[in-house]
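2024-03-11 09:14:02 INFO receiving multi-entity request
2024-03-11 09:14:02 INFO entity count = two
2024-03-11 09:14:03 INFO echoing inputs for audit
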Amino acid sequence: MKRSSPFAALVLVAVSGQVLAQETVLRYMSWDPAQLEIEGPAIEEFETAHNVTVETQALPPDDYWPRLSALAAAGDLPDVFAMSSGFVAEWAEAGNLANLGEQMEGVDLNAYYGAAIEAGMVDGEPYAFPQNWVAPVLYYNKDAFDAAGVDYPSDDWTWDDFLNAAKALTIDENGDGEPEQWGYYFYGRYAHTDGWIFRNGGRLINAEETALEPTQEAVNALEFLVGLVSEHTVAPQPQSLEGVRQQDVFPLGMAAMWVDGTWNIDNTRQVAGDSFAWGIAPIPMGPDATPETAVTYAWADMMSIAETSEQKDLAWQFIQHMVGEGRTPADFPGGKVPAYKAIAETESWLEEGLQPDNKGLILELGAQPTYTGFSKNWSAWRGYAAAGSGGMNGEIDEVLNGRKSLDEAIDAFVAYGNDVLSR
Amino acid sequence: MRKRPQISPTLLAVLFLAPSAIGLLVFRLGPIVWSFALSFYDWRIFDTPVWAGLDNYVHILNSPIAGRVFLNTLWFAMLYVPGSVGIALVLAVLLNNSLRSSAFFRGSFFLPYITSTVAVTLAWRWIFSTRFGLLNNLLKGLGWSDPPAWLADPAWALPSVAIVSIWKDCGFYMLLLLAGLQTVDPTFHEAAKIDGAGPLKRFWQITVPLISRSLFFVLILALVRSTQTFEITYALTGGGPNRASTTLAYYVYENAFVHFDMGYASALAYLLCIAVGLVTLVNFHFRRRWVHE
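2024-03-11 09:21:47 INFO inference complete, emitting structure
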């Protein structure tokens, strides 16, 4: 066998080194492995158009945030990364996010949902750009409504209408005191209860986001929800369904109504299959609210550029590609609404032939005033992810399970919340 | 012939030890020292650390939650240590024979220890499920009309975590105690038998004193492990309901990797370390009263 000469090897190394040196690499990190797979073709398209390599990494949220935080501590953040409405303020204040003001100057912001753009603003400056947004909605079982002879929820439904429907839909077939079908299902989870509070014009935290100060409207909303379990028995105590995944209760037909985020449309489709017809509706407006004060609970998933990135312009072009014209409605299946209106407001995104048959309702919600409810240390005081058994979540569950009064629970979660907010 | 260069035995020893020593230094001792320093800082991982003095410790002492978490840890240790060591001792004594079936049972009882914690905990979660769980349906079948919501009732959540932890670990402790039992000279038992000592008396007067060193080791191990429970809590109850099963190790994780409050989490970890250290010291103090050297 002929041996290659050392000179030829040196030339090869030098040439490949030259090629490597010329290659531009953009690093992108996301919290949604499934979504990253969907994004594959759009990323390839960007790579070809800009002659760059996009290095991607996706980790599920529980791993994503610790990893991203460690990278921030090491000064090694990827150029572009997914950013949550809940964390953008803290991350911007820590100096990790590039101010996008300059880049956004030439962008027609009217092409995007205003509330989603607003979610990336910190002290009036943009630090994240929205990719899609989500909102809690009222899921309802049409077959159960038909069987009970109840009209489907309408836009002008009151809380009394909701309660009457829930009573009619609570059915204990074998009379054992444990209904086979509950009218409604919820527990202290943020996506289950906070929409009711905000639709009643209530707030949990003060305007400065420095202390928990639940308003009377918020307390009234919580009282109404607690009454569904303790007084009207149209919803189960959460402990009775321990062991069933919360997102499966409605699709398994165990409750006829349920409030959760639009991102659960996918799971509901998968679990319920064709077993029953279902739709979605806005959370009814509360008796204490006016159309001006009854805001929609919604928030955006966004993309940010690292302050340490040395290729911010390229990173911005990537973001523009990934949130706008580089995408198709098929990239946003289920309940994630593209922030770019031209993709969202298409027949294709409405997914005709699939349930729910009124996805357009979500787009209407996006046009209304919205509120994210997020603050510093939100995950702690609200009780989220691995801390989901504590904070406000845990205290409300104690009330629903009949172990505490609502006043005691509010005192407890306010005390704990103010402790974590003061850190 | 050229003489090979000689490496001194000390250098050789250092070279062989280096991989483990460097790993230990970088990934264990370093973080231990570093986290002590961090406990005096206000540091969200993605932000710049800011000197906070004793603030984190003061916050913990004034926290409406931390006291409960400490008590939960104590309560868990009180359930787990006697439970796991007691059952392990009984199993070890029962299986300390040369019967063929004993090997099968030793393997069976040890099996939970080496299976994936999250996987078996998820199976336990189904068993404990309030309405559809195996356990409650069994209890209902036996006539208990309203069995507890094991994982959603504050009175039962922590004991449920303890039950799964004991089930998972007692096989390992059993193995350690079996090793101790194998060293007991059977002639002691035979002599006692001839003198008329019953099985219980022989157990307390001969077996326990002669395996006291193994027993002490297992006790310390169980005590330390009782303060480290995390995976089972994470997969079974998530620390709930309403903190009822949140122990210190879980609370440290929550503050470090959910709220990213590293300074606060480090301070909690050091308080845990001090508590475990104190209990271990007390154990060592009383050791000479019952452990036969």
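2024-03-11 09:21:48 INFO post-check: Residues 282 and 364 of chain A are 10 Å apart (CA to CA).
2024-03-11 09:21:48 INFO post-check: The longest strand of chain A covers residues 24-30.
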